[in-house]
Amino acid sequence: MQVILILITASLLVATGFLIAFLWSVKTGQYEDDVSPAVRILFDDETNQSDNNSKS
Amino acid sequence: MANLKTDQKVKCFHCGEYCVGDTTHYDEKSFCCLGCKFVYEVLNENQLCNYYELSDSPGTTRKNIELGERYAYLDDEGIQNKLIKFRDAETAHLRFHVPNMHCSSCIWLLEHLQKIDKGIIRSKVDFIEKELFIVYKPVETNVRKIVEQLSLIGYEPELNLNQVDKVAKKKKVRTRVLKIGLAGFAFGNIMLLSFPEYFSGGVYTGEDFRKVFGYLNFVLALPVFLYSASEFHLNTIRSIRQRTINIDVPIAIGIVAMFLRSSYEIFSGTGAGYFDSMTGLVFFMLIGRNFQDKTYEWLSFDRDYKSYFPIAVTRYRGQIEHTIPVNEIQINDRLKIRNQEIIPADVLLLSKNAEIDYSFVSGESTPVNIRKGERIFAGGRLQRGPIDVLVQQEISHSYLTQLWNQLPDKSSRKSGFQQMVSIISRWFVLGTITIATISFAYWYNIDITRAVNAFTAVLVIACACALALSAPFTFGNMLRILGKKGIYLRNADVLERLADITSVVFDKTGTLTELESTVVEFHGDDLCDEDLRNIFSIASSSSHPLSVLICKQLKSFSNRDNIQNINEIPGAGIEGYVNSNYIKLGNHAFAGINSVDKTDFKNSRVHVRINDETKGYFLFRNKYRISVKEVADKLSQNNYQLSVISGDHEGERPYLEKMLNNKSALLFNQQPSDKLNYIKSLQDKGHKVMMVGDGLNDAGALLQSNVGFALSSDINNFTPACDGIILGQHFNKLAEVIKFAKAGQRIIIISFIISLFYNALGLWFAVQGTLSPVIAAILMPISTSSLVIYTVIASSIKARRLKLR
What we know:
The complex is a heterodimer. Chain A has a domain of 38 residues. Chain A has two helices and no strands. The C terminus of chain A is likely disordered. In chain B, a hairpin with a 3-residue loop joins β19 and β20. In chain B, α9 packs antiparallel against α10. The longest helix of chain B has 37 residues. The N terminus of chain B is likely disordered. Chains A and B meet through α1 and α2 of A and α4, β5, α6 and α7 of B.
């Protein structure tokens, strides 16, 4: 039965990883504009050197 | 009446509008105006024609391309510094609000600005906020150049200095999302860890596991209690300090009770605790809050009045012009207002005359003529400039500002519903504490542990979720449905006031009549084709709305002839020579006509003189909306009292009487103050009045009414006095909107009854001291989610029945 403890620890670690990923994505504003990134990726880039990290 | 032909339609390659008048051809493409052609040329030159491939005719029409000195104030260092968000030795950052962006082509073009202006390093769009973020090299370009460049290609940025608030709002939304995420995470994991306990009662897991699970739950619940639920705690403390009880108090009591009891059970090893119910409650409540905030921010009604105003103005000091920020304007300053600038304060006109477009504040599209010495209200846009003005009032005392400042009167009147919620909250808190104490007293002599159990269990299970959730979800869903139908309300309170309406007052001009479909008739001598062609040529060189209407009517003449000595006098008319004919178009004074036919002087006229011979006049007749009769019939069927107030003369009385039922009141020749007083008199008779008007001249009446609607063709132009905007084409839905609002109240009351049932069930277990965590964990999510589902589905069904979907 002790194996359950290991499994729970593992599952909580994974879950915490996703929680941190979520917190990070909210903090960097990834949920704020969900239209332009979807459109932007379809543009043919000729000279598009703009880096996509939003400093907003 | 003259014979007016229409031609086959050609769409402008740039903006997609039908070409009226002088179609310009360039590069085998047609353009409706020189502005559109210019944008095409600029884009073509910079190899940016991809713009036209991403969507069809993505541009906005560019009829006015003269910027002149409009952005001259951006050369001022101090103002630049206010706009620049960040600056180092080589680069500077700018952020603009660009209301015009609307499609993928816009995104593409705005992100390729570096091709047009080499000084721009990169630009990035936030489409949802309609914001443009620019990084540029100050050495190679400057703010004014960038703004002018943007304006020229049709993406004029909206400049104002108080954009700071927006960042704060964004931050608030982010924090809320973080809190919800954290609560949801904890809720799910605690639920998982609690399952063994629920299903086996701890038999299979054994004491060790039970302890480990308990501690884990505690660790997971702690941040939820301290961080996610913090706003409930803080609001409770605040409300207790003010000696009132608001909706957060019962919620916070429940959360604290659950947390303390669960911690005790876990550390004393007596039970599993209610952490799953607690985190679930916080999770649902926060979602409800988020929904509520979203619906309150539906439209930016609470835009500060300052966002209407320009950033800076030109002031004369002696004879020298200099630029000052708008908030430094003082009484008796002499200002220079340029073409297309917005009047920042209430001023007197010092120049001879001016034409002011008040559509910004009133939605009324026809410009108003102002003569020397007359007052111009803040918020109007100058049509032709420049003019000199003398400041009469500081910005904070202007008419427009006062309209904003009067607003709290209306919103601070606590709505009936809020009052009801706060009364119920008070009784709810009182009720739960009484029940808890009684059950404690009952069990006290029998079993002290059970007494404590019962006491806390009552606090745990009594859930005020209906109070906190049903109104936001019902009203939120309703506002969303109405918004899709072109009916925008300021907030949820409006829906509630709408349900109590007993009397409806309409303004006539611009409300019952439709400005967009004005009928142009020519009265007078029959004009030959050559005359019409000459009139067209003259009219097409003016951007006055009446000239535009004439051109629209005479659009069979697609090319205009050469005009000489053209002279346009604002507020009077336009004259010039076409093919050596001297043409004059204008008001009767301008055309030199003395005898004015008094019968329908209110309809605008443009008189025509050719070679000093009076030919007749164009008459602009307003048409009634098709749906007026339908709406009036529906409203009077439901026993609403109808009135029509109008600033016009009685000429239309027979027509209106035919359209409305005979019980309706028709008032003519009403001044704005009469309109206000009429509404007051109705209210004194006990009526709850809805006013449907169009803007500034009935702003007082809109404000006085219980619900003031403005009819508009553009949701960005509305008077701050109104509670809601109806787009013109959705006017026919008015009766249904009121019905819908009434249905909303019924839905909320039913949801209260449902929640009463859940609470009774929970309390039945709680007072006996037998509320197990499992029952709480089942009851709590079911009651909240079923309430939410009921309110959303019921309001959607109602909307479908009323054909609002």
